[in-house]
Amino acid sequence: MTEDLIAYLMDDLSPERRAEVEAKLETDVVWRWELQRLRECMTAADGDASSCDDAAPAPAASAATALATIDDSSIHDSKVDVEPPLDLVKKTCCFVEDSASGKFKVEKKRCSKKQAAFTAETVGACKRSWSLADVTVASGVGLILAALILPAVQNGRAAARNDQCANNMGSLGMAIENYAGRHAGLMPAVNRNEPSIAFFTRLVDDGDLTPQQAFQLSACPDSVQAQERFADGALSRLPSTMELSSVTGLQLLKLIALANVSYAAPVGYFNAEGEIQPLKFNPGAEAPLMTDAPTIGPTALRSNSHGGCRQNVLSSAGCVRPYTLCVLSQEDERMRDIHLNDAGLPAAGNSPDDIFLAPPNFGPDGPVGVGNATKIQFEIIFCPVMSR
Predict the structure, then answer these.
(1) Does 96 lie in the same domain as 76?
(2) Domain residues for 14?
(3) Beta strands in 4-94 (DSSP E)
(4) pLDDT tens digits along 114-142
């Protein structure tokens, strides 16, 4: 080492050997320490290297000892000495992994040659953008999934709304039974010139329902009236019996529209003297007690709930039965029987067996605010089955 360094200082090395010495000087602190000593010695001896050959002290036994013998400026000048190796983290992890698994002898070959899974080269090599074909295929798959899922979601929502409608009717049936138990078996009365929503307000007056309960239960969630309630917000409410009896004509129609009731209720029958009488509640019968209210027009009956071709009917026995309109003709006939009296009029019949379930804007005499009902020819409008 000393001979090579003296030759290096005297510029007496071949280019190949000189490159080797410079490489050692860059990586070995002992060589740099010896070069510094020889340079100082030759400077003091006016360039005579013979006096410096044997005066060199023994070099440090290790790099750590050599580092301890040089000053801070030498350490500061050499970044290689103080900076850790580039693969220090990888080797440390390998050592810890082998030690934890019982391999106390580090597998140097594995730890030195194992390539990291994610380097700049590997990440760059894996980059791949989406092609037009990829986007087209993904879009097609998305459309197919949407076509399969959306109808099922819509049918599920419609089924949930139908179940809620049946639950509403069942709760109203219990309130009617409680009312009849305190009034000699009679259901709430609806007086002449009163709309059928007075049937619900009298359940509130008797304490069978709170005003909020009566309002919530009196509309099917799958009806036009429920949509109107949502649009009107806080404006929709169920009027009181006193309000209904104190107004007529247009003001009465405004109160009916404000309530947005979607169920048709029984309004009683006319006795021989022409007086309106409430119907008796018979829990063992299958007589219709309440239904989804249809629109009764000049020439037709049309369901306003469940897509227009279905009507739920609550019987006195507490059962809710769906009428599949527009599909089964016999159920269209039963719809006529429920919403028209034996004379073909949308008004109360002349016997307890002649049941008329009146929509919210109808009373015992027919449509409220427009006089008595007249006999007209009715027919059911047929429409395709709709899912909402």
Answers:
(1) no
(2) 1-83
(3) none
(4) 455 545 555 454 556 677 887 888 888 88
